[in-house]
Amino acid sequence: MNIYWFEQTEADVPEQDDWLGPNERSRLTQLRFPKRRTDWRLGRWTAKHAVAVYLHLSNDRETLRSIEIGSDPSGAPEVFLRTEPAAVSISLTHRAGVAACAVAPSGAPLGCDLEVIEEHGDAFVEDYFTDEEQRMIAHARRLEREKLVSIVWSAKESALKALRCGLRLDTRCVAIGLGDGWPTPGEEPQGSGPHLSLSEYSPSRWLPLRARHNKDQILHGWWRCSPRLTRTLMTLQLANPPTVLVMRELKPWHPGASTYNAKRKSS
Questions:
Q1: Rounded CA separation 93/233 (Å)
Q2: Model confidence at 201, in pLDDT bands (50, 70, 90)?
Q3: DSSP code for 196
Q4: Is 181 exposed, middle or buried (0-12, 13-18, 19+ CB in 10 A)?
Q5: Whole-angstrom Cα distance, residue 44 to residue 68?
Q6: Each residue of 122-164: pLDDT tens digit?
Q7: Separation in Å, CA 48 to CA 16, 42, 115, 155
Q8: Does domain 4-108+242-266 have CATH number 3.30.40.10?
Q9: Cα distance between residue 158 and residue 186, in whole Å
């Protein structure tokens, strides 16, 4: 299965709202706080363009208005094209002024997440991570601990989104492993050794993850880190590494534009 990944920042979002559909405009008026409104608009802008590229549509304002992002009963995003369900699955996330949208074929549950790489205390790890994950983090080199914590936490968020549960479930019901394995009860984390190291991984590559839900359900995923952000994606099916969607000539955006140029970049 092929999955696509698309990112935008707050600077990419136009000031006007004429690219939002009627239901989206109504929803926007219900958001009271400026930060919430900014994040919501960024997420919708990102998702609409990702869907437009995936479905080979234009990015003119009329087409963008026709792509509406709603929510199913679990809160997961749903895509409508001219009020009809679109043949696409998406997951949305935003963090620190950046939004990402993962896109897959219709009916393919998936979840994506962005996390800032920052310091987390031992109490955070003890409260939200499994015993096996805690041992894996304990084996990490000191300078790489926060990156590993960010990867594991982000992967949990992505897995719970793919399961249509979100953080309503205990995060310890999902166990995360890097590579093709995962921590198993009573065993050392795969590849941990005396000091688990992430130094061999290139920030330009997507690398594999796995998650185990309630000891029997397996999810498959990918992760990648920049110096500031961790990106993760999880699915219930085996999938190829995400293909990054890149928009050309997106800035400045012209509301009356009738065409767009886009390319798909493997990474």
A1: 10
A2: low
A3: B
A4: middle
A5: 8
A6: 999 999 999 999 999 998 888 789 999 999 999 999 999 999 8
A7: 15, 10, 22, 24
A8: no
A9: 25
pTM: 0.86
| pLDDT of residue 195 exceeding 60 | no
What does the chain come to in residues? Answer: 267
Residue 50, CB-side half-sphere exposure with 13 Å CA sphere: 29
| Bridge pairing between strands 4-9 and 243-248 | parallel
* Cβ atoms within 10 Å of 106's Cβ, excluding its own: 10
C-alpha dihedral, 198 to 201 to 205 to 207, nearest 10°: -60
- Count CB neighbours of 261 within 10 A: 10
88 and 104 Cβ atoms separated by less than 8 Å: yes
What per-residue confidence (pLDDT) applies to 161? 95
Residue 97 and residue 63: Cα distance in Å, rounded? 25
The domains of the chain are located at: 4-108+242-266, 114-235
Domain 114-235: state its class.
Answer: alpha beta
CB 250 within 8 A of CB 234: no
Same fold, 4-108+242-266 and 114-235: yes
Q: Which residue has the tokens 């994950």?
A: 133
